[in-house]
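Kindly inspect this today.
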Amino acid sequence: MDRTHGQTEQHEQPTGGSAPAAPTAAATPAAAGPARVVSLTAGGFALTVNPVDGSEIEPLRPGTEPARPAKRAAAARAARAAAARPPALPGPAAPARPLLEREEERERLVRLLGRGRSVRLTGPSGSGRSALLDAVADRCEGLAPDGVVRLSGYGQQQPGELLHALYATVYEADQQRPGRAELLARVREIGAVVLLDDLEMGGTALDELMRATPECAYLLAATPDTRAPSDDSHVEEVFLGGLGKADCLELLEAGVGRPLTDEETAWAGDLRFASEGLPLRFVQAAALLRQRDELNHHAEDDEEEEPGVFEERPRDAVHVPLPTLAEGAAPAELLASRVSESARAALRIACALGGELPHHAHLPALVGDTHADTAVAELLACGLLTPVGTRYRLASGVARQLEEVGYGDTAPEEARTAARHYAWWTGHASVVPERVAAEADAVLAALAGADVVAAVLLARTAAPAFAASLHWEAWERVLRSGAEAARKAGEVAEQAYFHHELGVLALCEERLDRARAELETSIGLRGALADKRGTVAGRRALALVVDGETARAAASPPLRLEAPGAAAAAGEAVTVATPAAAAPKAAPVPKAAPVSKVAPVASEAPTTKVAPVARVAPVVPVSAEAVTRMTPVVPVTGRSDAPTTLSEVFEDAFPLNPKPAPPAAPRPATAPPPAPGRRRLVLLAGAGALAVVTLGTVVSLALSSSDSAPPEQGPAVSSTPAVTESATTMVNSGNDPAPEPPVSAPPAETSAPGQSTAPTPGRSPARTPSRRPSPTPPKSPPTTPVSPAPTTADPSPTPTETGEPTPTATTTQTGTTTSVSPVTDR
């Protein structure tokens, strides 16, 4: 709605020929009733954009799924292409600029696109890339079945929004935003010539865009500093350079509207050398010459007429010379000084908005001049503006030149004014969402430069409009900026609203982790405010997130890391490498009957030590099949108990120094079984020894009752005399074995008085025969057997050690009585 002249413009209606008609309340400017509520279809969800309490989302009910969209007809594509061009400006129409020295490039581009090849048109800013794209679009109208599609890549770093824009241009799918799977399936069927101006992405992102649309031929216009496509993309490269001297002079004459003088021709030659023949510089140079002619012509008229008394004009006219070469190379300051005041105010607003110029219908309210809408045409004729899609922005290098001379000093105030204006405009019921989407860049720039209060208000009103217009990249940027501004301003309710909308947006785009985080934050904030309706809406959306996570986990369960023995315990099939040296477990060998200890007769023969016989596993028969030895990758540990900590589990499963299994050791030969006769003799010898020990005990008890005084306590034995043969020999029964030769006693060690020698831990105490003759039997009672000390970490040395502890016989000769005293085990 043109509020200045009271006329309705075509840009106030939804863009596109087949767009749905706006509601009746929205078509009437005076109807500023309740807030807009728009219902959309986003993938498998039904989305209701509610500007008051937050958007509501629910799964599509059975039978309400949208049908497969149809492609637009040629007339609908032409109407949409016309709506995508920059708007018509009020005032006199600007003369068309000729396309010079571009015939060769145009024919080459048309030829490559006709073969289905994609081309990247590279040229510096101001080289005429957009004008060349317009010329190529007219020649490629009937090459592809879906015609020619014009897109703008300004500010697009990912291919998602470009794919959605291509889908909306070709298919009749209003109020629908397909999911990723459906989107890729639909754009794969598109066959069109896509002209993408102001490309800012490259590399893998550009490859993804081109792989998603294999039936499309792209003409990509980019600057040299844009990232190049990958080597596998097979994109042709066409470089667009500057114009020649003759073409520069022709362009300058067409802009001025008259032939050039010799002085102007020489000046144009120097300017071409300084600017490398960029067409934008000569458009600006033509504007400088036109302004010079106007000033000089007014000066000539002033000489003919006498100036009035009250006129503030100088009496002496000053001739305006040609601009210098520096002013021609950077003409923004000089051009801005010669335009109208409304045009200079528009330049200040553009500098405050980062180079974005609002639509000309907004300039009267922003500038405060009812005729400020004509400033856009004035600035465009001077070469200070350039078209970008359906809008205008400052040309390359103009913003920097203007900021250097003070046009950016009032940027905070201008941005705050623009933010408050857009907050009122986007929330008005007469403004359709498509019109808000066309002003997305200016709205986002005003949001970035405004204070926190104005930013919260603008984000609150613009976010539902961006959501309803399916411009979701701008929707997300507005929500994030609004959440940050609400946090700084302390507006908890607004912050909860922005987080809820971010969660709904992430759920529609199948980003479940982000959706859960945003929704939980919103639910917490609304719970603190006791907002029951908002909390219920957030919990419903969170339930959809949980359902999506459950379905995703069922489709692809997560991997688990288990201990080596866990899989075997669960019954799973696990291949276990058995070392080749490992033998089957031997059966337990039955223990033989205990062998009685026989007291041998003392003699001078040395004692023979018999090594204990090792327990040998029985021989297992080996099958005739070939056995392949396998070296286990993870060695089998000797841990008997189950691991209790995570470190023990990883130590068993992944040792620090894995070693292969040891080589197989030779199996020892089986010892021959003992003869039955020898075992019988051993039993008989044990029985005889038991009888002798019993008799000796009785005799010792009888002799201990004598009144003789006990010997003094002293050292046990200091020396061992030689032992002669006993006077009385022991009488052996017929069943006893033959007497063994006497055993010579080892040298005894001297012990400290009153200190007994402790046996070796883990071993039976050694028995040493006593060789000291006692004149009288001792009166002391028989010694109580002392059990050996328990095994400790610090063993004590032993004086004498024999292979097998055996009882020894002590022969004492007193008169004619012979007594045999046993040696108790200590």
In short: Residues 676-703 form the longest helix (28 residues). Confidence is low (pLDDT under 50) at residues 1-33, 566-637, 706-739, 741-826. The longest strand covers residues 217-222. The chain has 27 helices and 14 strands.
